[in-house]
Specification:
The chain has about 250 residues and is of the alpha+beta class. About 35% of the residues lie in helices and about 15% in strands. The N terminus is likely disordered.
């Protein structure tokens, strides 16, 4: 037996990713009932996805972030459809909370290296001055040295479908139960396996939506939601296309 041919540097690194044969997007997912696939970007359905090579073979959690940023940002409705396609209610709730909070996956899951992690009691119902009900989310802010926690209010009237998906999982938990008792790496694997999406890309999608689709929100409010220490990172969201700006003129 030729052992030399089996050394790691001789093994071809052919990492492939499923993509839509119509538009080339990687946001494709199988549909169990119809036994075919759907593209969340162009809405095309097809029997089998095409395969294309990944730009890098690195398998670290954030290794494909730059690749994903090159694609068009999915709309809020598309994000909702992606969430509904997840049959596991815990994973669906994690997906929704990661999107709504623009949270880092390490802030939502139970990281053994951290002393603090989210419990059911960190989700509560509060009320605004105008009487609107909100889901108040109290969560760790891992990478901000000044602000260790952040509070995010999600109005019920404009996010009813998302909040219902969260409740379908959390309603069975006790107040002190760990919200998501899985590691960040496990959460990454599950979301990548189910939707072929980088969990950190959800943060990028949410911040883009806040910049592009919510006219009345200020850069300082986006800073608070994102958990930044200043508004400088918002400069990186100047990639929005001219069509996005033209629609508001």
């Amino acid at each position: 037996m030729n052992l030399e041919s089996q050394t790691p540097d001789k093994v071809p690194k052919t990492n492939l990713i499923n993509s839509c044969p119509t538009c080339g997007s990687s946001h494709v997912n199988p549909r169990e009932r119809t036994n075919d696939y759907i593209c969340y970007k162009c809405k095309a359905t097809f029997k089998e996805p095409t395969e294309r090579p990944k730009e890098r073979s690195n398998t670290k959690p954030w290794s494909h972030q730059k690749e994903l940023k090159k694609e068009d940002i999915p709309s809020i409705q598309v994000v909702k459809e992606m969430a509904l396609s997840i049959t596991d209610i815990r994973l669906r709730a994690l997906f929704v909370l990661a999107y709504l909070t623009a949270g880092r996956i390490s802030e939502l899951t139970k990281d053994k290296k951290q002393e603090t992690y989210m419990r059911k009691k960190d989700l509560s119902i509060s009320e605004l001055e105008d009487g609107r009900k909100v889901l108040l989310i109290h969560m760790p802010n891992r990478k901000n040295r000044k602000t260790k926690f952040k509070d995010i209010g999600i109005p019920f009237d404009t996010n009813e479908d998302f909040i219902r998906m969260i409740g379908s999982y959390t309603n069975s938990l006790g107040p002190l139960d760990t919200l998501f008792p899985i590691s960040p790496s496990r959460a990454y694997y599950l979301l990548k396996d189910k939707l072929n999406i980088n969990p950190h890309y959800l943060r990028h999608i949410r911040i883009t939506h806040l910049v592009r689709d919510y006219k009345d929100i200020s850069p300082f409010e986006i800073e608070m939601i994102a958990g930044w220490s200043n508004i400088m990172p918002i400069e990186s969201y100047k990639h929005l296309k001219w069509k996005d700006a033209a629609k508001k003129l």
